[in-house]
Amino acid sequence: MNQIIFHIDVNSAFLSWSALEKLKQGDCTDLRTIPSIIGGDTKTRHGVVLAKSIPAKAYGIRTGEPVTDALKKCPFLVSCPPDHKLYSEKSRLLMEYLADICPDLEQVSVDECYMDFTPIAARYQSPAAAAHTIKDGIRDTFGFTVNIGISDKKVLAKMASDFKKPDLVHTLYQSEIAKKMWPLPLSSLFMCGRSSVEALHNLGLLTIGDLATSDPQIIVSHLKSHGKMLWEFANGIDDSRVTTIPTEAKGVGNSTTLSQDALTPADISKCLLGLSESVASRLRKAHLKASMVSVEIKYSSFQTTSHQTTLLTATNDSGAIYDTARKLALELWNGTPVRLLGVRTSKLENEDAPTQLSLSDLTAKNPLSEKQKSLNEALDKIRAKYGKDAIVRGTLLK
User: Which run of H or E residues covers position 338?
Assistant: First the structure.
């Protein structure tokens, strides 16, 4: 099938993430439901708007404008300072969640990424059905919403995700450009900034369609190579591919916020088993092994702690990772309710790298290891063809 690309963009990310954190801390007002912004200080009237709520947008408040201008438009505007540490953590959790669905991701900012949907398309009824499943899963798991744009080109997927918001899925295939994109103003075109818009207006061009049907040589003569790129984008010309971030640079991990706090060792173990299988599967798909395993625990009090250990032999086996993660977690657990669990592997190497054998390995071949490797390969093939939920351990059945 033809390439299918998703662009996934968090709706008002900074404001949504700050709003959720304040609600967790006991605030009664959801910043997303009132005229509010992230950035600057309404008391000192300094700074610029980094993010805005939908009610604030109704007052004409724009991202990037000075707080003083925003206050003139809405004197009772609520401002919240940015928390970049929080945003980084929220971004990490989101990307790990998406990578568990499809590891072919290209993160382009803290709140947006491209996904090459093509390899997993057979698991779903249609790209739109898959996008709705992913979108709703993010909302139900994390409490914030995303827009997903679908296309056969990266630039068009990006444009589609910027259509009507929030919490929506839009398509913009090449066959839909004339109907859905060309009537839009030039300011809506990706990478067409204010100075480019002014230059194109001076040429009598007002819409993306005007630019798309104009003579590209005239555009290039006024805007050089940037003009050529804008003309190509207006016509849906974009041969770039989703570039996956090298796994070696960041390790492989997965975490989950539990729908109900884990209260017993059995609860913790069951969750860690699912996470370990996900991590091990992603390692095998990337043809990697890990020699370090770490576990993260966040308690219902929001206290977070972690523990890690180095393995004697690098592995991508689910059982080995689970056994290590379970041991670490039970050593770390203080007995109070657990809200979040995470398993992460690092110190990665190619799975074909020479393995340092232990004394027992030198004296006898380990048939269980070969049997387990064959089983892992069989499970991976089944899940690749029929979906990750096609076969699961009995202990993980709901």
Answer: strand 338-350
Q: Are 301 and 336 in contact (CB under 8 A)?
A: yes
277 labelled catalytic: no
Could you give the CA distance from residue 171 to residue 177 in angstroms, rounded to a whole number?
A: 10
Q: Which helix (H) or strand (E) holds 396?
A: none
Q: pLDDT (tens digit, 9 = 90+) per residue, 303-315? A: 888 888 998 889 9
Report the pLDDT value the prediction gives residue 215, as an integer from 0 to 100.
97
Give the pLDDT mean for 342-354: 83
**How far is 184 from 39, CA to CA, in rounded Å?**
29
- On the question of pLDDT at 3 being above 50, the answer is yes
Q: Show the tokens assigned to 13.
A: 């990310």
Q: Is residue 21 predicted with pLDDT exceeding 90?
A: yes
Binning pLDDT at 50, 70 and 90, where does residue 352 land? confident
Give CB contacts under 8 A, 24+ apart, made by 26-30. none
174 token code pair = 């090449």
Distance CA(150)–CA(152), nearest Å, equals 7
> Which residues partner with 79 through β-bridges?
37
* Maximum distance among all Cα pairs of the chain, rounded to whole angstroms: 81
Catalytic annotation, pick one of 21, 96, 106, 112 = 112
Give the number of other Cβ atoms within 10 Å of residue 129's Cβ.
Answer: 11
- The average pLDDT across 104-110 equals 90
Measured between alpha carbons, how far is residue 226 from residues 81, 154, 167, 205, 233 in Å? 35, 18, 32, 16, 11
Residues 6+ apart with CB under 8 A from 63: 49, 50, 51, 52
Token readout for 318 is: 């689910």
pTM > 0.70:
no
